[in-house]
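task queued by scheduler; priority normal; single chain, no ligands, no partner chains; default sampling; output format set to structure tokens
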Amino acid sequence: MITRKDFARQVSAKTGFTLKDIETVMAAQREAIVEGVRNKETVKAFDGIWFQGVDVPARTVKAPSTGEMVDVPAKIKAKAKFGTSFKADINE
């Protein structure tokens, strides 16, 4: 697994920017993506990669351990979509 720190080091090495600058940009990207998803917008963060927020309505489910019915509140679910250009790039 490539950790966030390892990823930042790789980007730093490829771009020549400092590790601190890369980490600042990565944090700002994450904030922007989270804000867009929270607002249920489609965010095209990178070439061929989209993030989207989708409403999941409140529902009642059966708890597997007790069999009791439990209310689950409504929430926003994050979804990621990978386009054909990204899929083609990873299979080169």
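post-processing summary
- The chain has one domain: 4-90.
- The longest strand covers residues 49-56.
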